[in-house]
Amino acid sequence: MSGQLLRFVRFFHPGGEREAPAVGQIRRWALKAGQHGRTFAVTRGRYLPSLSSTPETAELHFWCEWEGPAESVSRFSESTVTSFPKGVSRPRLVGRTPANLQDLHNTDPCVFGDCFRYCNCRQGSYAELQELGPGSIILFGSPRSGQFVLDTVFVVARAVRYQRGRSQDLVVPAWYRMLALDPGCCDPKNPEESYCYYEGATFEKPVAGMFSFFPCLPGERSLCARGFERPTVGGVALYERLGGKNSGGAFCTVISGLSEAAALWQTVAVQVLNQQLCLGITAEVPAVLPE
Predict the structure, then answer these.
(1) What is the pLDDT of residue 155?
(2) What are the C-alpha distances in Å from 285 to residues 38, 103, 163, 199?
(3) Residue 217 forms beta bridges with which residues?
(4) For 229, which DSSP code?
């Protein structure tokens, strides 16, 4: 693709926690009538306790975007600190495409499956988000008390341009198409509107040593009285790259090369690890709800 550049992106998305029903009940797919939100999720996955360790497998707890159905697993004690989760939800899929797809939020980015994926969020407002070359880094997170709190680090490995009305041409898993692409492309008014579909670098197939990850904890460490907050990233090393006091939706800066990208990526990873969290590198595809 022409126009691709190596970029570092700070991406604000709404940080409010999705409300979960009583334990054992199913939270319905989120409607576009409201804002996107975060979910404190649990699912089986792989993680790194440190940058030098080998991957381990466990039930992981982590913050993510998940707009599909979810099963309420447990509730935490009430806390006056709103940055801690109120409960834990297990993401679930539905077996057939919902009839009201045009009314539903899509999950973007998506950290589940064999790689992270990102397909359209804010790309209509920020042209740079359609021009991210391999090795570009997107930090997905939210503002909180003047700081940036992180839920997903996305390292671009592959990019494919597509048109809204031809998203069916993309080769993606069926569950991902229903969860992310179809709700995001179901507007018939602008079929020629273009987006870029991205796949993230993985631990097994990194870009310049970088891979996508989400801050997490294995279950036995995170199910304390109140879960954990999303980690803050920033400081002098990242201040300008995060936009300083800029409070817009997406802030993009050009990176000089892969060596600079790798140094920035390591700074973020170390800051996450220093807050007693681990790096989640895969999350299993959620199970389908029984009909």
Answers:
(1) 98
(2) 18, 23, 26, 16
(3) 61
(4) P
